[in-house]
Amino acid sequence: MSYMRGDLLAKTRKLVKGFAKAEPVWLKAMEKAPPATFPRAENKLRPISLPEDTYVNKFFQKHPDSKFEDAIRITGFDPPAARVFSWRVLELKEQGVSEEEAMAVADMEYRAERKAKKKAYARLKQIARLQGKRPPPNPYPSAIKEIQAEERKFVRDRFYNPQTLHIVDKLREDRAQEMIDRRR
């Protein structure tokens, strides 16, 4: 029935009318009280664009590495750095500053914030070393390093997992057997 146009009621009517299907019990009741029909969108849906989107794109052109370092945290409440940058540019433009100057100021603030975060973490590590403790985990890690940290246990696991070692031994035996067969 997927090749026919219309809703369930129209499709069933066509099938019954063409003697392709016996009339179902519910057809008369459904004809008396048909289901609600919702209007369809005539054109393609337009993409949602926000006023700051142009500045977000300019930010990523200027700082392409920030896509990986300042990744969007779905579970976090802090907006991504690109959004904060663009909001700051829009705020400065509302105050009457030109676009170039607003972008320069927002860029300077972004760089200063990143530098302050790195400096704060370096100080935390220094304090931990002085106290003889392990340094704390980086509160501002890059997304790549977070992914690598998650994968590290699986990478190490392949060297010590008995099932993995059994598979590797089997592969070695198969390879050795192939080499013996080739020599014959």
Automatic annotation (TrEMBL):
Keyword annotations from UniProtKB, A to Z:
Mitochondrion, Ribonucleoprotein, Ribosomal protein
Task: Identify the main location.
Answer: mitochondrion
Return the protein name: Small ribosomal subunit protein mS23
Location of the protein in the cell: Mitochondrion
Mitochondrion recorded as keyword: yes
User: What is the organism of origin for this protein?
Assistant: Rehmannia glutinosa (Chinese foxglove)
Similarity comment: Belongs to the mitochondrion-specific ribosomal protein mS23 family.
InterPro entries assigned:
mS23_dom
